[in-house]
Design a protein that fits this description.
alpha/beta; globular; 6-stranded parallel sheet; 371 residues; 7-stranded mixed sheet; Quinone Oxidoreductase, Chain A, domain 1; homotetramer; Rossmann fold
Chain lengths: 371, 371, 371, 371
Amino acid sequence: MTTGRASILEQFKAPLVLRNFSVSAEPEPGAVLVRTEMAGICGTDVHLWKGELPITLPVILGHETVGHIEALGEGVDKDWSGNPLKKGDRVTWSPGLTCGTCYYCAEKKIPTRCVNRRAYGISQPCQAAPHFLGGYAELHYLKPHTSIFKLPDDLPTEAVIGAGCALNTALHGVERTGILPGDIVVVQGAGPVGIAALAVAKHAGAGEVIVIGAPKHRLEMARRFGADHIIDIEEVKTSGERIAAVRQLTRGYGADVVLECVGAPPVVVEGMEMCRDGGKYLILGHYCDAGTVAWNPHVVTRKQLQVIGSWSSEPRHMKIALEFLRATQKQFPFAEMVSHRFSLEQANEALAASASGKSTKSAIVPALSRL
Amino acid sequence: MTTGRASILEQFKAPLVLRNFSVSAEPEPGAVLVRTEMAGICGTDVHLWKGELPITLPVILGHETVGHIEALGEGVDKDWSGNPLKKGDRVTWSPGLTCGTCYYCAEKKIPTRCVNRRAYGISQPCQAAPHFLGGYAELHYLKPHTSIFKLPDDLPTEAVIGAGCALNTALHGVERTGILPGDIVVVQGAGPVGIAALAVAKHAGAGEVIVIGAPKHRLEMARRFGADHIIDIEEVKTSGERIAAVRQLTRGYGADVVLECVGAPPVVVEGMEMCRDGGKYLILGHYCDAGTVAWNPHVVTRKQLQVIGSWSSEPRHMKIALEFLRATQKQFPFAEMVSHRFSLEQANEALAASASGKSTKSAIVPALSRL
Amino acid sequence: MTTGRASILEQFKAPLVLRNFSVSAEPEPGAVLVRTEMAGICGTDVHLWKGELPITLPVILGHETVGHIEALGEGVDKDWSGNPLKKGDRVTWSPGLTCGTCYYCAEKKIPTRCVNRRAYGISQPCQAAPHFLGGYAELHYLKPHTSIFKLPDDLPTEAVIGAGCALNTALHGVERTGILPGDIVVVQGAGPVGIAALAVAKHAGAGEVIVIGAPKHRLEMARRFGADHIIDIEEVKTSGERIAAVRQLTRGYGADVVLECVGAPPVVVEGMEMCRDGGKYLILGHYCDAGTVAWNPHVVTRKQLQVIGSWSSEPRHMKIALEFLRATQKQFPFAEMVSHRFSLEQANEALAASASGKSTKSAIVPALSRL
Amino acid sequence: MTTGRASILEQFKAPLVLRNFSVSAEPEPGAVLVRTEMAGICGTDVHLWKGELPITLPVILGHETVGHIEALGEGVDKDWSGNPLKKGDRVTWSPGLTCGTCYYCAEKKIPTRCVNRRAYGISQPCQAAPHFLGGYAELHYLKPHTSIFKLPDDLPTEAVIGAGCALNTALHGVERTGILPGDIVVVQGAGPVGIAALAVAKHAGAGEVIVIGAPKHRLEMARRFGADHIIDIEEVKTSGERIAAVRQLTRGYGADVVLECVGAPPVVVEGMEMCRDGGKYLILGHYCDAGTVAWNPHVVTRKQLQVIGSWSSEPRHMKIALEFLRATQKQFPFAEMVSHRFSLEQANEALAASASGKSTKSAIVPALSRL
C-alpha cells in the first residue's frame, strides 16, 4: 500500500479537509497510479465548492492535473495517442470517463453527453477505494480506460496547467463553430476560457479578434495572446456602447463569430447583437446554471444566426491541445498564466484566490507541502 | 395603359381601401405585367396591417400570388429555371428582390439578408408607378430581375397558394437544420408554417414527426399530412406535461430536431427542453418581434444544442417548393388548405378570417369581384 | 450443448461443405444464441467465395441474418436501441464488431474503419468454438458487444433480408453525400445496392431519380421503387450516349448527386461526367477491388466535384434501416426482392443464383432443409 | 484618349508582340482605368501560351496585377470591401467577372462555375476597345462590376504579386477541405500553389505540415514558410517510398488532409494513399487537363475518402487573401517569392523563366521598360 494526503470537499461552502488515504501500490489491470506534480484550480472548482452543481460528496476536487507514473497496471503500455508508457513518465489525462456504448456514445457520437460519464475531481466520490480520484492530492488513481497522455519533454507542466481544461473546452467549442480563415471573431470574457478561445481562434485563422473583458491584468494577457482589439468593460460600460464598438470595428455588420466565455446570462443577449447576420454565436461559458435573462428569440430568426452550445471536451481535444501547446509556446504563453502556487495545506487559499479573480491561474503543488 | 383595382393599406389598423391604378400595357425591358388569379393571405399580412413591422405606406399587401402573363418586357423570354415564357402563361414569383452585390449577397452568400432587399406586398410602396406591387390587386407588375416561375400544368393554383410562402420558409429553415433520414422531429405549431415544416420534414426522411398545436381542425390537417403523433395543447395544457410527452415518445432523450413554428417566445423555452442532447432547434416562427421571455442560456451549453435561425427564403427555395408540390400532391394536400375565397372587395374580411384563425388559409380571387 | 448444421467455405471456388457443430446451450455473459430463420446471399458472398477479398478460412458465409433467440447470456436484457430482449424474440444484428478504443473508433469516430473490426460471415473463422459465426447455418452465436436489434412485429423477415446489408450501406453512403430536398440524383446500377440507394435517395427528398442499369427485371424493380427515369444500358449502349441522356434530363447541367452502385471502374469515369459542376459523386459499389481505369483528375478540379467513399455501415444505420423498412413498406417493397429461397443443403445453388444475377435476391432458409 | 503599350499573345507558341493601344481617358460609368505597376506571371500563362486551354486570341495575358487608378467612371466610389476609392489609389482585382444570375451563380451559389464567366488575361480578347484587358500592359481597363480591392499601405505590391492567384486558389481549396486545428496535412508540390497551400494550412491551424517536392530552392522556401517536414522527390524517388515516408510521419495511418498542388495525374494516385482512412484529398493543381492515369476507385471506398475539387476562386477569397498577406507578412514572406523582374519588352523572357521553373515567381514591371 502507498499512502498520501488529499484535500477533501466534505461539505459545500466549508473548508476543504486534509486527510490521509492508502491505495494499493499495484494498480488493477488497466489502471495507473500517479504521483501528482501540479493540479490546476479551475473556476468550476469554485462553483463545485459552493454546491452549484449536483455532485455527491465527499470528493477530491481537481480535474486539471499533471503527475508522474508511480505504477502501471497490467496491460497498460501505451497512452491514448499510442506513445509508449513507463514508470516515471510525466502524464496528464482527460478527467471524463465515458462508456462507449450508450445512446450518446454509440448512436449519436457525442461522448461528452455519455449517460454514464464520470469525471475525476467532480463526479468520482472519494470515500471508497481507490480514494485518489481528484487532483488536490499527492496521488491520483487512474481507472482502466482513462485517456492518458504522455507529455513531450519540450512541453512544461506549467503550460498544461496554465491552459487547463479551458483550452480543451475552447478547442471543442470553436471546432463546433467552424471558424473560417479571415473570420472576424469577438471573444466575450478574458478569463481562462476567454484567453484560450482567443488563442484557438487565432490559431484557426481568424482574421481579427476583438476581446471584451476586465480587469486590466487579464486584458494585458489578452493582448499578449494576440488580441487585435480590446474593449475594456470598465471603460465601455453599457451593453449598447459595447455593441456599437463592435459594429464600428466591423464596418457596421458585426462579427462572423462571437464566443461567449463569461457565464453571465445578460452577456448572451449582448453578444448575439454583436454577430453579423448569418453569424455564429457560441455559448461556451455557461457550464454552470446562472439563471435566466430576458431574451428575444426574434433576433435569431431575423439575423439568421446559429447559436451553438458545447459541453466539456473529448479525449481527442486533449490530444490536440497538448500538441498545440507544444508547437505554439512562443505565440501563446500559457505557462505564464500560472500566477500563484499553493501547497496542499493551502488548498483553501488556492480556491479563494481563484474565486476572487486575483490570480490569473492558481495551482496546487503537493511537493511544496513537504517543505 | 391598362387599368385595374387594388386593395390598399393606407393606414395601419384601418380598413384597406379599394382604388384604381393604371399601368403601361408595355412593361419596361426585363419587366412583366401579370393579371392576378389568386393571392394568398399570409399571417404576416395581419402583422403588417397592425403595423408590427417597419414598413412604408401605402402598400398593396400580398406576397403569395399566382397570375397570368399579360405582357412581357423586352428581353424576358425565360423563367428563373430556364423554362420559356410567353403571354398567357400561369406564373408565380419570389416576392424578394435582392441586389446581388452587397456584403450579404456577394461575400456571405445569404441573399435573404441583402441590405437592399425589397419585397412585393411588403416593402414596395404603391403610390408611384407602376403601382401594382402587391398581390391584393387585379394586376401585378414584376420589375426587372424578379425571379419568375412558370407553373407546370399539373400543379393547381390552389396548391401554390395553399402552401404559400410558408413552404418556402420551411424549406429554407429545415435545410439549415440538416435533418437526417431517421431523425425524430418535433414541430411546434400546426398553422401554415407548422404544416409546411411537417411536410418538408417527412419529405426529408424524418423517422417520426410529432406535431404540437391546436385547434382541432389544424391537428386534423396535420394528421392528413402524415404526423405520426399529435400533442393537442388544449388537452396537454402545461409546458412540463408537453415536454414529458415528447420525452416519452423518444425513449426519454428528446427529439433530434425541433422546429418552432409558432412565434410566441415561451414556446422557444419549452422547445429547447424537447431536444435531445446534441440536438437542433430551429426558430422559424419568429419573423415578427413578439418580445422577450425569461430564458436560461445554460440549457444550450449543457445539452450541447445548435439553435438555428432562418429568415424568409431564396428563389431557389421557390423552385424546390414548386417541384415538391407537383410531385407530392397526393401525400401532402396543400391545395385543400385554401379553405376560404374572397373577392377583392372582401379583402378586409379575408384578413379578418386569417387573423381569427378560423380559416386554414384564405385567398383573394380578383375575378370573383367581377361577378 | 446444442448441435446444428452449417454450410462452410473451406476452400475458395470450391463447393461449400455441410457440417455439424456443437455450441454451449448457455452462452457466456453478454452473448446470445440464435436459431437462424433466414440468411441473405449478398453479392459480396460471391466475391468472398471466389477469394477476391483477403479472409481466413474456414468460414461460414452470411452477414445478413434473421433469427430467433434461443438463449441469452447473463447481462443481456436489451437490444441496441434499448428494447427489452427475451427468449424467442426475432432479431437481426450488425455483422461488424468494433473495439471502440482504437484511433479510428475513438479519435476519428469512423468505426467502419476500426482496426480491430471483425464481421460475422466474413472475418470470423469457424474452426474454433463457438463455430456458429455466419448466417448459412441453423444456429448463430452472437458474441458479447454484438449490436442486436429486435424486429418489430409489423416488419416481415423478408423485408429485412430483401434489403440486406445493401440498405445499411446505402444509408451510410447517401448520408455522406448530404442529399438536399429537390436534388436531382442519378443511381448507377439496379442491383441490390442500386435499388436501396434509389429508395434512400427518394426517402431523403430527392427531386427526381434517374436509374441506369440492366437487366429488364431489375429495371422493373427500380420503377416499382419509384425511379422517375430509367436508362437501360442494353439500349443506351455507349458511355457517351448515357452521359448525353442524363444531361438532357437535367437541362444540360448534370445531376446534383450521382450514386455509383456497380463496382466496375469505367462506371466511375462515366458517372463523374454525369454530375453538374459542384456536384457530388459517391463511390459506393467498390467494396471489392476491381482494378484500375484510365481516369482524368482534371475533371474533379474543373467541375469542382466532391467524390465521396463510404465503407460498410455502423450499427446506427441498421437501426435507421429497420425503422425505414417498417414505415415505408408500401412505398418500397423490399420484401418482394427475395425472389429465391434455398435450403441449407442448397447453399451452393443459392450462391450460383446470386452470381448469375438471375435472382433479385436469394435467401437460405435453414428450416426448409428439414422438409 | 490615353495610349499605352501591351504585350499580346496573337498566336499560340509564338512570341508575344508589343503593340500600342488607345483607350478613353474617361471610363464608362462603373468602369475604372488603371496604370499597371506590376503583373505576375502565373504558371497558367505558360499553359495559355502553349494553347493548352481553349481561349480566343488575341489576348493580353496577365491575371495577377497591381496598379494605380488613373480614372474612375461615374458611380465608382468604393472598392469591393466598402473602402473609398479615389484617383491614385493602389489596387488589385479579381480577374473573373461573373453574371450573378445564371444557374451556378444564383441557384447553386458557385460563381466560380458561372456560365458567363470571363477572366482578364485569359478569356477577354483584346482586339476591340477597351483593349487593355490583361496585365502585361501599361494600362488596364476594369469593366463595370469588376471586384476591385484597394491595397492597404502596409502591404507591399511584391507580396500581392508573390502570392498571386495561387493564394486565392489555395484559400478556396483549403476552405473546401475544412482543415481542423491539429490536422496533419500533406502538401504535394512546392511551386506557387504548394507554397500558398502550405501557408493557408498552417494559418488554418494544421498541426503538422509535410511538403513533398523539388527542386532544392523551392523546398528551402517551403521551410521558410513553416513546413514541419520536407520530402525531397529528388531523394525519395519512388511513389512507394514517399507513401511509406508519410506513413512513418503519421504513426502509420496517413494524413488527415492531403493537398495536391502539382498538376500531374500520377501524383493524385500517390496522394490518395497518403490519406488516413476517412481523410480528405484536395485536387487543386489540375487547373489544366494533363491527361489520364490508371486509378483504382476502390481506394476511395475502402479508405472512406472525400476527394474534393476546387476551381479558381471568388472575390471573397481575394479579400481574405489581402488581409492574410497584410497580417502574416513576417510569418509568410510572399514578397520574397518575386525573384525575377522584367520590362514589358522582356515579356517573352518572363514567360520562359516561369516555364523553366528557374524563377520562384517572375513579374513584369511596365515602368522598367521606360528606363
